[in-house]
Amino acid sequence: MGVQVERDADAEIRAVAERIRAAGESGPRLARDPVNQPMINNWVEALGDENPVYADESAATASVHGGLVAPPAMAQVWTMPGLRPDFDTDDPLHAMMTALDERGFTSVVATNSEQTYHRYLRHGERIGVTTRLESVVGPKRTGLGDGWFVTTRSTWYSGAEPVAEMMFRVLKFRPPQGEPAAPAAEPEPAPAILPAISRDTAYFWAGTAERELRIQRCGGCGLLRHPPGPMCPECGATSPTHLVAAGLGEVYSYVVHHHPPLPGKTLPLVIALVELDEGVRMLGELHGVEPDRVEIGLRVQVDYRAEGEITTPFWRPAGGAA
Amino acid sequence: MTTLPRTRTAPEVRVGESLPEVRIEMTPTFIVSSALATRDFQDVHHDRDRAQAGGSADIFVNILTSTGLAQRYVTDWAGPEALVRGVSVRLGAPCYAHDTLALFGQVLSRADDGEFEVEVLGRNGLGEHLRGTVRVALPEGAS
């Protein structure tokens, strides 16, 4: 029953969208002001754009433009509807936003803008924009809430000449009830992703379970190797054995992982490539030292912790507090 | 009389080349002044109470500003006579007040007509705020 009501609402939104789309392109909506220096000054000041072709007459005159021009990315700014929008026109984006507002999709974020500039605009040009609704896709479940992606295409004209074009997409969504999203909050604890155990690696994980760090050793020529594999790269023997490492080594290289989040991990996290005293190099998390204090050559020792079914090795500074 | 800073020429630019990282503090003043300078009066860009009531953590940067920053980032690197032909941005994580936006870029390709496509990536404390491309034409250079 509830599902049916929702489907009816979705169908209604699609019908409205189809009506607006079929109506085609809106008549041109003129910019409030012609392209002018004060608005350009406000824009370059706010955005910190110091390109002199927008604001310094002598530099602009000496440039390829031969005079002052407007920042291309301001194209859309000239025809923004402003503080008290007057939508007695047939603006398709506004009409679609209203239809979604009425159905509870009250919040909006822009997600895509693809702009093409045919030429730079000069002071005194009063441009106009035409817009058509391209598509309305949904309902989609997003991180912000359930919503609809609304895509429009606009063309700006100076007189009859097209000067810029844009594809613009917004997500019109229903904000979830309750507390606002708190992006700074701790991530939900989730189980860490554990290594898969194969026939080639089973000896290693059997070792960590006994708090032993095992290095694969060729049963033919005795070569130590890590990571493990079925065949010796030196002599081709397929009879691996292992030896138990002392668990000491030094940082050969490392990275500090800040992003993206990893399930079950607290970031930032240091991942170190450790050269064991036995000669092979092994990757692992390095704990017990601040990321900005890690150095190549830092002496480390192995430690272990149980994670779910398996015991994973990690590194900590040698001789440090356990 | 201001002298015009130099612009990179097309032969100087290598596909694959990285642009220097630029970090911009997303102060409330920046968010509000850039929203108003782009004539975007949506409340989520200047009114924290309204932004939070709509499910956001704070006021956040508007897309016209993200587009403008992508343009600025590339022309700051290329020089004042680089001709901007297009800016495309896809937004991910919002850029809330009190965050820092770090911009990165890389020259992706060069078309036959000498137009370069530069990828711009904007990261903040929440992850990827924007990913996009800026298309610029550079002077061929004196010979």
TrEMBL record, chain A:
SUPFAM superfamilies xref list: Nucleic acid-binding proteins, Thioesterase/thiol ester dehydrase-isomerase
Occurrences of domain ChsH2 C-terminal OB-fold (ranges): 245-304
One Pfam family here: OB_ChsH2_C
Residue ranges of every copy of the FAS1-like dehydratase domain listed in the record: 32-165
Residue ranges constituting the ChsH2 rubredoxin-like zinc ribbon domain according to the UniProt record: 205-239
InterPro entries: ChsH2_C (IPR002878), ChsH2_Znr (IPR022002), FAS1-like_DH_region (IPR039569), HotDog_dom_sf (IPR029069), NA-bd_OB-fold (IPR012340), Thioester_dehydratase-like (IPR052513)
Protein name: OB-fold domain-containing protein
Automatic annotation (TrEMBL), chain B:
Stretches assigned to the MaoC-like domain: 21-109
Signal sequence residues: none
UniProt record similarity statement: Belongs to the enoyl-CoA hydratase/isomerase family.
Natural source organism: Saccharopolyspora gregorii
Superkingdom: Bacteria
SUPFAM superfamilies reported for this sequence: Thioesterase/thiol ester dehydrase-isomerase
UniProt-listed Pfam families: MaoC_dehydratas
InterPro entries per record: HotDog_dom_sf, MaoC-like_dom
Transmembrane annotation, as ranges: none
Protein name: MaoC family dehydratase
